[in-house]
Amino acid sequence: QVQLVESGGGLVQPGGSLRLSCAASGFTFINYAMAWYRQAPGKERELVAGINRSGAVKDYADSVKGRFTISRDNVKNTVYLQMNSLKFEDTAVYYCRGQDSWDPRFVYWGQGTPVTVSS
Q1: Which DSSP symbol is given to 105?
Q2: 3-state SS, residue 35
Q3: SS3 at position 78
Q4: Where does residue 84 fall: left (phi above 0), alpha (psi -120 to 50 degrees), or beta otherwise?
Q5: What distance in Å separates the CA atoms of residue 76 and residue 84, rounded to the nearest whole number?
Q6: What are the angstrom distances between the C-alpha of 27 and each of 16, 31, 67, 76, 91?
């Protein structure tokens, strides 16, 4: 059974930090490019950061560059999102996504973890 389970979300003050984790199971993790998306209330889901299979190539939305870092551990089958200098506008539900690098038809999503930036 394929599972992507996010954790680490919560309430944080502006300027604070959070580290999200996404634990994968049920598929060959190292074959999958991974990404974090987010969806704020009333807005469409947007790509936050992506990482290739090896972890050597990373990409970020302009709004988070220099503040967020995506990484992965192919032994633990986990992808992370380190979020620093959080802003009010980072408030959203954050989703983990995996896509098979060899067959892009295979895409998996986690259930999401909420992040609220508030004073």
Answers
A1: T
A2: strand
A3: strand
A4: beta
A5: 23
A6: 34, 9, 30, 13, 30
Rounded to 5 degrees, what angle do the CA atoms 4, 10, 98 make?
Answer: 20
Band of the pLDDT at 7, cuts 50, 70, 90? very high
- Say how far residue 48 (Cα) sits from the centre of its chain: 7
Q: Is 97 exposed, middle or buried (0-12, 13-18, 19+ CB in 10 A)?
A: buried
Pairing of strands 3-7, 18-25: antiparallel
Q: Which of 68, 112, 58 is nearest to 90 (CA)?
A: 68
pLDDT tens per residue across span 67-112 = 999 999 999 999 999 999 999 999 999 999 999 999 999 999 999 9
